[in-house]
What we know:
It is built from five helices and two strands, in the order H-H-H-E-E-H-H. By secondary structure, the protein is mainly α. The longest helix is centred in the N-terminal third of the chain and has 47 residues, at 5-51.
Amino acid sequence: MLFSAEEMAGESVAMKEDEACDDATDKEVAQTTSNVQEEEEERRENRKEEEKPIETPISPKTIEPSSDTVLMLIQVIRLLDGLSGNQVRLLAMQSVALLQAGIDPLETYRLPVLPGMEFRGDTLTGIAYVSIVRSFPHMTESIGVDLSSAYHKAMSSLAGDII
């Protein structure tokens, strides 16, 4: 006989202890897995809540452009009326380049296509807008400023010679 009855009994007890330990470990693993799954589910729910779009009230009123903006655009339109198509395109590129570099609305700037003339930053924005509308109308959004309402008012004023 390889093992005595006592050794076999001891082995049996050890196996039962191992099985009990394995069962406890299995329960711990199952509990940990369950906890991890619950935490992951909770994270998913939190992400869903975070991903919900934030609703902001939209005012039904359209903000009207200031009369100063409309008058400035009228001056710009009249200025551009005296230029050739190539000059307006060049003006568009030069003014947008300055805008992209960053401007101060109250500082003065010069444009090489219009030698001897200086423009404040806000007028430069108007020049960029009007020259883009005339030369590259599909690119008006690239300016980053929406002067469409003021531009249409300026054009209407010029058409009716109100100003």
